[in-house]
Design a protein that fits this description.
Layout lengths: L2 H20 L15 H16 L3 E4 L5 E4 L1 H4 L4 E7 L13 H15 L7 E7 L12 H7 L17 H8 L16 E9 L4 H4 L4 E7 L1 E10 L16 H18 L4 E3 L3 E4 L9 E10 L2 H21 L3 E10 L2 E2 L2 H13 L6 E4 L5 H4 L5 E6 L15 H17 L11
């Protein structure tokens, strides 16, 4: 079989696997698969089978991650961790997260079938929760591996009032044993994630893959705005304390500040209105504010400007406003040696070596606390993500798999311990 036919076969098989995983979704457009849900449970059965085909032994850990280990990792040899998250946003796409689970498993299976033995430990992790869609508490699984999991997260509740701890226990995890999930830094020599770019750069440059240099910093806040309910037909417009009107003005002000600040992006992504009735003045609105920038100073300036504007709006409209941070992660750099190793694999596969910055957060934000991180981006159509129309091509799937196979085989043995920045 020629290299081109092998690459085509890899692409077809990977796309078929991703299609199969996408069927484990709540009804509706796109893919909706939440942490500790029935869909999560079902997709792990599929992933566990992929792990076995790749020569790995699967195991559900205490934090809800599915971890597949090769024999060397199981014996405690120094290990490279690969993987990404299985969960999605509501009505998301097939590839965000799941590509980084399916592709390394396929690469490992292809190397195994070719008789290539890797002289180091390998783990592939299907992280349980990265998006935070269900509990608004992200990076649960990767923080567990990194040893930075906050037990207070177990008290977070979903829309039905179920706590994260309760959901995890019902799923088969063990909230009390999460501290034991943490890896010893000396046992791991790196973490590498494959992910769709979620942006337009690779498509604009007509390149299948790119090498990430750093991951953006992210912070999230929950704002609660309280006014006063009343009959929508009998209460005069003047003097109304309409929480939704105030929230709408705040959303517009946030958008203005974000557009006026270089290197800062953000979104008000979720609003909950009470009592949410057609003929009642809204008494309460809870909404989220997310800010992203590689610069902590830029985020701080933007946050201060937006929150001060929201307080002015609340005072003007006679509303009560409170805010609290719900999540924060600083920008982190990818390790230069992993960047160079991925570049070498790209060159060996006749792929351009494009370096680019990630404007999205990933499990690497947490894994950086444990070990060196690296990341390979794959081109996605129109840079679209978190959307049912999210798409990659079969050809790019095959090309990215070949690059990762070359990267894994070229490592030889576990690199010596490196001093981290």
């Amino acid at each position: 079989m020629t290299d081109s036919s092998t690459q085509a076969a890899l692409g077809r098989r990977l796309m078929a696997r991703l299609d199969e995983a996408a069927r484990h979704s709540q009804p509706g457009p796109g893919v909706t698969r939440l942490f500790c849900s029935d869909e999560h449970r079902a997709v792990l059965e599929l992933i566990a089978d992929w792990m076995r085909q790749a020569g790995l032994s699967p195991e559900l850990d205490a934090s809800g991650n599915l971890v597949g280990r090769n024999a060397r990792a199981a014996r405690g040899e120094r290990t490279l961790i690969l993987g990404s998250h299985q969960d999605t946003v509501t009505e998301g796409g097939k590839y965000d997260g799941m590509l980084g689970v399916a592709l390394p498993l396929q690469a490992l299976q292809a190397l195994k079938e070719a008789g290539t033995e890797l002289l180091y430990g390998v783990e592939v992790v299907a992280f349980g929760d990265e998006e935070g869609t269900r509990f608004q508490s992200t990076l649960i699984g990767s923080r567990a591996l990194a040893g930075t999991f906050d037990p207070a997260s177990l008290e977070a509740r979903d829309a039905e009032g179920v706590t994260l701890g309760e959901a995890l226990e019902a799923f088969g995890g063990n909230p009390q044993a999460i501290p034991q999930v943490a890896r010893r830094p000396e046992s791991v020599f790196g973490f590498v994630e494959v992910h769709i770019e979620q942006g337009p750069v690779l498509e604009q440059r007509d390149q299948a893959v790119g090498i990430v240099t750093a991951l953006t910093g992210i912070e999230r806040h929950r704002l609660s705005l309280r006014g006063k309910a009343g009959h929508a037909g009998t209460t005069p417009m003047a003097g109304r304390r309409d929480a939704l009107v105030g929230a709408a003005e705040m959303v517009v002000e946030a958008d203005r500040a974000l557009n006026a600040t270089p290197d800062l992006v953000g979104v008000v992504g979720k609003l909950d209105v009470r009592p949410n009735a057609v003929n009642v003045i809204p008494a309460e609105v809870n909404f989220t504010l997310e800010l992203r920038s590689p610069s902590a100073d830029v985020r701080e300036k933007g946050r201060r400007e937006i929150l001060e504007a929201c307080q002015r709006i609340a005072r003007t409209r006679g509303l009560e406003l409170s805010s609290e941070p719900t999540y924060g992660a600083e920008a982190v750099a990818c390790a230069e040696w992993l960047i160079e190793a991925l570049e070498g694999a790209c060159r060996a596969c006749d792929e351009p070596t494009q370096r680019l910055f990630s404007g999205a957060g990933h499990d690497g934000l947490a894994m950086h606390d444990l070990t060196d991180i690296g990341m390979l981006f794959v081109r996605c159509k129109e840079g679209l993500s978190h959307h049912p129309d999210e798409a990659i091509s079969e050809e790019d799937a095959g090309r990215a798999t070949r690059v990762l196979m070359r990267f894994l085989s070229d490592l030889g043995s576990a690199p010596e311990t490196r001093d981290r920045d």
